């Protein structure tokens, strides 16, 4: 099946937008409302001759914080089991939330190869905000804007370097 990369993170950080950017498709459903991506979505990516499968995790069924927490934990654990590399997506516009901290803790314990993605870094000023994500202890945050595509080449380089 080849290398598998899973995108995890709390709702609304831009996982599906990033999935679309990296797979260059509109496969994932992107919506302003948290809770849109019903199922995990698979796509193929090829970068500098290397191929991998990308999974957009989802399954946020109801708008209850408790369910979110339970669902996100489930998705993160599935990703830890199935994936070779995890993309942990956070959001520079909203900064660190409790749910981010919780996911970071699970990922840190798993010792799974991981790339920390600071999404919504739409302009250079926002890159400075990404420094707060060093607090996770998960290495350097990669600043990207899934919406305008900036940083996606460097991110892809970082992903394939983990295989
Ligand atoms: P998901 O719930 O993590 O899959 O997030 P979505 O991909 O559905 O995106 C949630 C919202 O964030 C949508 O309104 C997107 O348009 C927005 N969004 C995603 N990526 C970016 C980005 O790079 N910059 C900005 N400003 N907004 C983004
Ligand atoms: Mg989504």
UniProtKB/TrEMBL annotation:
Complex and partners:
Associates with the 50S ribosomal subunit.
Q: Tell me the superkingdom of the source.
A: Bacteria
Protein residues bound to GTP 1: 9-16, 56-60, 119-122
- Protein name, per record: GTPase Der
In UniProt terms, what function does this protein have?
A: GTPase that plays an essential role in the late steps of ribosome biogenesis.
Q: Where is the EngA-type G domain?
A: 3-163
> Which family does the entry's similarity section mention?
Belongs to the TRAFAC class TrmE-Era-EngA-EngB-Septin-like GTPase superfamily. EngA (Der) GTPase family.
């Amino acid at each position: 099946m080849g290398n598998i990369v899973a995108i995890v993170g709390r709702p609304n950080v831009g996982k599906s937008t990033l999935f679309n950017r990296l797979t260059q498709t509109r496969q994932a459903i992107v919506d302003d409302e948290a809770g849109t991506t019903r199922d995990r979505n698979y796509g193929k990516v090829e970068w500098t001759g290397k191929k991998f499968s990308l999974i957009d995790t989802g399954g946020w069924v109801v708008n209850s914080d408790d369910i979110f927490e339970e669902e996100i934990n489930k998705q993160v654990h599935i990703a830890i089991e199935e994936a070779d590399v995890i993309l942990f997506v956070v959001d520079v516009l909203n900064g660190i939330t409790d749910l981010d901290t919780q996911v970071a803790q699970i990922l840190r314990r798993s010792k799974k190869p991981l790339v920390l993605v600071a999404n919504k870094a739409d302009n250079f000023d926002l890159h400075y905000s990404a420094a707060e994500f060093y607090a996770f202890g998960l290495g350097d945050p990669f600043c990207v804007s899934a919406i305008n595509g900036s940083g996606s080449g460097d991110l892809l380089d970082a992903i394939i370097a983990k295989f």
